[in-house]
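Example S7 (structure tokens).
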């Protein structure tokens, strides 16, 4: 489980096409500290498994389904990525519960800079609209954010300077894809309410 608090801005240093998958080599000196084969690291919000690692880099295999359902397929050498290690038991939950299972992708629609923050509008797939509410939580490229406005096909978030400086959202431009993970609690509530209705 992750919290959506990005630990560092990493970089893709190699991409190997394996036919039905790809192997990424990523530089991230913070998240590789103490890393072991089989550990999980979230890359732009996608939970990946460490295959190999050295002092400041690790490799991870990405299956075709993940490449299809996320924006990882658009990564190239030099792409910057948000990196986060799983939360350790007993640590503070700084953001919200994030599984690293991307529900879909959106695109940056608009950026409105202000003096101390920036409002970013992001498109929202129709099948995810019901899970996104004003002042609720959503994960964008692995970043835990609060929804400012929830529209029928979009939502907005307000980004503080720290988020702009230390994550990919400070660099993404209109048209760029982003990974979206909605609040898992909303999905559980929907399933439970649906089950109750079916038994009546």
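Recovered sequence:
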């Amino acid at each position: 489980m992750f919290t959506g608090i990005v630990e560092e801005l990493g970089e893709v240093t190699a991409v190997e096409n394996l036919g039905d998958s790809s192997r990424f080599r990523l530089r991230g000196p913070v998240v590789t500290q103490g890393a072991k084969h089989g550990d999980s690291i979230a890359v732009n919000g996608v939970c990946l498994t460490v295959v190999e690692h050295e002092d400041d880099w690790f490799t991870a295999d990405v299956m075709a389904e993940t490449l299809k359902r996320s924006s990882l397929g658009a990564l190239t050498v030099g792409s910057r990525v948000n990196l986060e290690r799983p939360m350790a038991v007993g640590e503070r939950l700084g953001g919200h519960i994030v599984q690293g299972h991307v529900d879909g992708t959106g695109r940056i629609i608009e950026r409105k800079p202000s003096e101390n923050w920036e409002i970013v509008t992001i498109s929202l797939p129709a099948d995810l609209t019901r899970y996104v509410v004003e002042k609720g939580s959503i994960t964008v490229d692995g970043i835990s954010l609060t929804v400012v406005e929830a529209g029928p096909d979009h939502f907005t978030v307000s980004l503080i300077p720290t988020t702009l400086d230390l994550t990919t959202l400070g660099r993404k431009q209109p048209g760029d894809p982003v990974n979206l993970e909605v609040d898992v609690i909303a999905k559980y509530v929907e399933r439970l309410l649906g089950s109750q209705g079916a038994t009546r």
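Notes on this example. The two ends are 35 Å apart (CA to CA).
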